[in-house]
Amino acid sequence: MADFILEIGIEEMPARFVPRLGEDIKNIFSDLLKEHMIDFAEVAAFATPRRLSVFVTDIALDQRKVEEEVSGPPARIAYDADGKPTKACDGFVKSQGIKPEDIYLIKTDKGDYLGAKKTVGGAATVSILPEMCITAIKKLSFPKKMKWGSLEFTFGRPLRWLLCLCGDQVVDFELAGLTSGRKTYGHRVMGAGPWDIASASDYFNTIEQKCSVVISPEKRGELVRAEGDKLASALNGSVVWKDSLLQEVSNLVEFPMPIIGNFEESFLELPKEVLLTSMESHQKCFGIENSDGNLLPHFLCTLNLKPKEMDLVRKGWEKVLKARLEDARFFWAKDLDTDFGVWLEKLEHVVFLGPLGTMGDKSRRLENLAALIAGKVDPDLQTEMARAGKIAKADLVSEMVNEFDKLQGLMGGIYGFKKGEDDVVCKAISEQYLPAGPESPVPSTIGGAIISMTDKADTLVGCFGLNKIPTGANDAYALRRAALGIIRMILEFRLSVDILEIFDMAYDGYSKDIKWKLDKAEILEKLGDFISSRLRAYFTGQGYETRVVDAALGAGFRDVNALKARVEALSEFAKEEGFEQSVLTFKRASNIIRKQGSEAGLILTGGYEVEKLIEPQEKDLAKKLDDTADRFEELWGNDDFTNLFGILGELRPFVDDFFDNVMVISDDESLKINRLNLLQALVDRLSRLADFGALQV
């Protein structure tokens, strides 16, 4: 056994590439070791901006030896009439590296075939590793690759060195004009090197002590957080940590050195969101706040070295941030002096989406649609929601959002508050882009949910009308995210709305002059299918069985909250003993109605004549349907689907008796139609709860 190290030295890699590279090379190398039958204890990978390393603990020095049976050509063509080997037999012997006497016959249903047992593996690991290393490096993927020099080889950034050792032995290979060896290079300033690595087991000690590199991304993040908390605490504050930024910062450096910087207190007049965006987006710094959540005139930045003159470096960071904050203060003052009416007029000259008009047109649609949705959800908010819809997009032409586009919506809410708009309006505007993804929170207020749904519904209808419907992985306008956002808001706020009616109202808000590529019926039909697919993905993602979700969707999804209740109740019903037999019984009823009714051109109403019920079993079923009708409707009104499925359990014995003893397709046409209508009455009730035809058992 020995340890193995492969280190790929690179020019500084973009921070967004680093996390995935470490995970990818670990998985690739693990798979290659298993594929080549090389035993090992553990594979670990480490990534920094300048190096990508994979370390294998206790790698076997030789491949495992495995005896396997191989089959060859049929015996009838492997030997001639005299029993002598033919070319087919000779070829089998040669290709498998075996002796003629090792061959035996394998008897199968299709005849006799040549067979042999051979031993594979057993090669020295160091003879296999070179090709494995080249394969692993070439398999790494990047959002973008580049060439350098005259090489045809491509990678995320130019390769600068290759270190590869198995124990104390160099694993020799060449790639991208480089030859592997035992040299590594350290931090550009604090331990440049080169440094010789005597054996793989010495790698980490050399990297840490001589190279001055913290090779683990997790450890770099922990160091930044721990030192940042310590420095902020000395100022009676705490760091405004942002996990995504912490990961980015950790992958920008090899030797993290957090320090505190300061800025003028006068900049604290700017909104907290503006200050944090200036620090985080442009300077990759963290804000520091007090116990009340108010920012302090300090920031935390992370250096990539330990400077000799800390104050000089600090002043450099402060100077750059000050310039950013000066710009932000200028934008802030200018925007505060601008009326919403000026911005709304500017929106008339900003295109929304090709044939769909301007952002001014969209603002008027949002004004009308938000009031309509509010009328369905909370009529007391109609006036406020109309106003919020009208000015929701105004901040898109503000100076601040033009500079800091991540603040769209947030600045609209802040400016609204400063300009005297109602608090409900301001909060709704600030939350209009939530949820921003499947893990993003929904708006915290009902007003925010209304404006968000309004905006998303308007975009969905517009894009579908232009036939810009997502296909495969293509979703340029994030329509799947928009649909999921509407679904989540309806569920989390328990909104009593018809999701398809929202799209109907959104369509009616568009100008009659728009040249649609689909007519209204097609748009709404395709949107219905799209929403159904999003609901299916949502509930299966919550852990519900696909067949249960499909069956519940088959009963309708216009009321999303009722759909959720049906999915939950049907999921519990599916766990009960006898569920599968119930499904078969109810599917039988549905199939009979489909074949004898719609497919045969017979119109069934579900209205049956009691006096034509002859057999005791059909009378019993009719009576049970009648006895449970009022209770069914009461439970339906209360969305009590658990007890509704309980009624189905009560009905099943009567349905079974009916099928066992009553001839539905009677020679008497009158009896046949009456019995079909009795089943139609049953199926009408079943179809309100689930599409039992979708339940495969």
UniProtKB/TrEMBL annotation:
Keywords: Aminoacyl-tRNA synthetase, ATP-binding, Cytoplasm, Ligase, Nucleotide-binding, Protein biosynthesis
Subcellular location: Cytoplasm
Pfam families: DALR_1, tRNA_synt_2f
Organism lineage: Bacteria, Pseudomonadati, Thermodesulfobacteriota, Desulfovibrionia, Desulfovibrionales
Top EC class for this record: ligase
GO molecular function: arginine-tRNA ligase activity; ATP binding; glycine-tRNA ligase activity
Protein family membership: Belongs to the class-II aminoacyl-tRNA synthetase family.
Quaternary structure note: Tetramer of two alpha and two beta subunits.
Protein name stated in the entry: Glycine--tRNA ligase beta subunit
Catalytically driven reaction(s): tRNA(Gly) + glycine + ATP = glycyl-tRNA(Gly) + AMP + diphosphate
GO cellular component terms, A-Z: cytosol
GO BP field: arginyl-tRNA aminoacylation; glycyl-tRNA aminoacylation
Superkingdom of the organism of origin: Bacteria
DALR anticodon binding domain segment(s): 585-683
NCBIfam families (UniProt xref): glyS
Enzyme Commission number: 6.1.1.14
